[in-house]
Amino acid sequence: MPPPTLTLRALNRATLARQLLLERAPLGVEDAVARLVGLQAQVPHDPYTALWSRLEGFEPAALSDALTARRLARIVVMRGTIHLVTREDALALRPLVQPVLDAELARHRDFAPALEGLDLEPVLVHARTALGGRPLTGPQLRASLAERFPQHDPAALAYACRCKLALVQTPPRGLWGRTAQVTVATAESWLGEPLDRSATLDEVIVRYLAAFGPAAVADVTAWCRLTGLREVVERLRPRLLTFRDEHGRELFDLEDAPRPDPATPAPTRFLPEYDNALLSHADRSRFGHEAGWLAGARGRGTVLHDGLVAARWCVDLDGGRATLVVAAGVRLTKREIASIRAEGRRLLRLLAADAAGREVRLEPVIA
Hints:
40% of the residues lie in helices and 18% in strands. α6 (98-106) packs antiparallel against α10 and α12 (201-212) packs across α14 (229-236). It has three domains: 10-191, no CATH class; 200-254; 269-363, no CATH class. The strands form three sheets. Strands 1-3-2-5-6-4 form a six-stranded antiparallel sheet. Strands 9-10-11-12-13 form a five-stranded mixed sheet. It has helices spanning 8-18, 29-35, 46-52, 60-68, 87-96, 98-106, 111-115, 121-133, 138-148, 154-164, 187-191, 201-212, 217-224, 229-236, 276-279, 334-351; strands at residues 39-40, 72-76, 82-86, 136-137, 167-169, 183-186, 240-244, 250-254, 269-271, 301-305, 308-318, 321-328, 357-363. The protein is globular. The chain is an alpha+beta fold and 367 residues long.
C-alpha cells in the first residue's frame, strides 16, 4: 500500500505546530530553544522576536539572563551560521557540523589560497590558549596571531580559527537593548566543559523531525548543510513513518509528532529577519509560493498570515516615534489587514517600548 499523501496545507500546519507558531506555548526560554534545536542568531536580536511570537508571556530579560548565566550560547552550528542554542547543544552540535566548516574554509576565495599547505595545529593551539584566558574581539585575535605568526595573513588565520575551533560569541553581544562588537571565547572555556563528542546524527535528525517535519532527506540537508544523510535516515527508517508530498517526494516523520487537521486556524505571526522555520527545508512551498520572495529581504522580517508568507516588515524610528512598516507580498482582505495591524501593534510594544508614539503602516503590494 503506498504511503499517504500530505498536502501543502497539512505540511504547513504540522510545521507551524512544531515551531510553536499555531499557538503561543507556556514554555521557558531554555526549553523552547532546546525544542526548536536552536534559533538563527546572526542578527543578535532576532531570537527575541522569534521567541515573542512563540511563547506565552515572553520577557526579553529571561533570554538575556540565560545568556549571561551561560545556560544559552551563541555559536556557529547549522549551515555554518550563528545560532542561539542551549549550553548542552553548543557542546554537542558543534562537533557534528565540523565537516560543513571544513568545506567552508576549503572553498573560501581569499583565505583558502593563503592557508594552502599550512600546518594549522600550532595556530589553533595558540588561539585556544589566547581565547581560553579571556574573550577577544576580532582585531585582538588577529593582532595576537600576527605577533605569533608574522609571516602569515592574520585575517586568514583568524578565519581558520573560526572554522576549526568551537567559538562562542560572548555577552554583552546578544543582550536585549545592547549592542557590542563580536567578542569570542572557546566554548570549552566559556561553558566550563569539554565538547560532547558522544552525540550522533541519528539523534539530531530525530530532533529535526520533531521541530521541522514531516521532511525529506533533502530538507534535513538544507537545515544543517551536512551531506550523506540518506544513510542515516535509512538507518532510522524502522522508527519513522513515511508519507509523500503532492510532488511524490518521500517524507519522513515521527509517529508521535503533531500533524494537526489542515483546517486548523493559523494566527498572524511576525518572524525576524532570519528564522529557521522558513530556512530549514529544501522545498519551502509549505509556506506558500511566496516563500521564495524572502530572498533579498535583508533587514526585514516576515509576516505569516494563515500560515503563509504574506508580507515583510521593518521598524522605522524617527524622532522618538516608531513605525512598523509592513510591505505586503500578496493581496490582503480588510480582515487580514486588521489582523496584521493588531499583531503588529503588539510587536511594537516589545520592540519600541520607550517610543513616544507607535503606529503600523501597510504599504502597497510589492510586485
